[in-house]
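Collaborator request, handled under Task 6.
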Amino acid sequence: MSAEIQLISDGDGLAVIGAATDVERFLVSEGLPSPKDLGLPRLKTVAGVASAVAKAGSEMSAESGRWVQLTRESADLVHKYGLRQNAANKLFTGVLKGDSGQIRGFVEFAQGPGSFLANPAVLAGVAGIMAQVATKQKMDEIADYLAKIDEKVDDVLRAQKDAALARMIGVAFMIEETMIIRERRGRVDDITWSKVQAAPATIAETQAYALRRLDALAEKLESKSAISDLATTAREARTRVGEWLAVLARSFQLQDAIAVLELDRVLDASPEELHGHRLGLRDARQNRLDLIARSTERLLDRMNTAAARANEQVLTNPLSSPAVVEASNHVAYGIHDFRARLGIETGGRSARARRWVDAAVEVRDSALETGAKGLDAAMSTGAKGLDAAMSTGAKGLDAAIGIGGEALDKAGAVTSMLSSGFAGRLRKLRGDDGQRAIES
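Structure tokens returned to the collaborator:
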């Protein structure tokens, strides 16, 4: 008995389509956990796509589809089996064939009428459903985030005076109601869509307001110079950032819900436009993610800078400085968790509060090191001065001795001269006196 598995990847997930038993066997053999049902029977009720399914015959109608989120393991299958990207729809597709469920070979496109890959309309419909399943998966992750942080978003919205924030509460009610109707009916008609078609503007306005509030907190942190003011602003950020992140998460969740409803609406009304609309929704979502990433990154930078400034002043502010660091770490953890839930790359480490004792020891060690260097310099300068003084003194002593010797010689000569002259005069005097005595 031959088996055939059709694989489709859109970058977010991997669809495995084929007979139910073959699909299950393939998923188990590849170790792919928690697959979700694609709900392929919906295609039979969609105008335009339904006719293509009917032409394909009973083989296509009997197919079962499972969707697996694209993780590293499931993404490896794209390379393992050599799936190739279609230039027109940007999907990676391929067909695996084998006997008795043992998939061995690869064929890029199936030739039979029962292949989803052979019909562009059906393939577009499958890609649209895959996008919906992936989006709902992301919505569930945001719901888990909101439950984890235990933030009552509606309470936060009601506390604000901005009318757009209050309107989003009503919009959320209408979107949730429309999603329930969609699940029951399997489609979104004109009446159902009319309930929420104005919702995107309100959600975008609320999201923009929350981003402005985060930017305002970042600017406020940057403007504070005194550590006491910085501590006050950091404590405010610790409380407010969590609230605005919750509002952002909720608005993003509602935007994803609108995307799911839009895909149903386009699939029902204009299936030929589904491919372009799907790619447009993906690009729009990425733009929103980039905007949120930039805003939260700015706030992270300001909080890290505040923590660094606080640690530098811990000696003079032993109470306020650790409070700033602690608040910074709390905010950073919340932002990193939020970004991870939305699929935004994140990283970074927590700052460590500098203890007063550690700072004092560092200052003491620095002072001792500076003092030691000063003493060494002084001793070096003193030694050089002493050597110079001794050298100068020795030269002076030699000069003095030389001068003294010369003076002594001169003094001796003078003395000799004086002595000689005095003796001569004495003899002369004595001679005159002796002569006078004889004559007498």
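The cover message to the collaborator said: "The chain has three domains: 2-124, 151-354, 366-415. Confidence is low (pLDDT under 50) at residues 106-113, 350-368, 433-440. Please let us know whether this matches your experimental observations."
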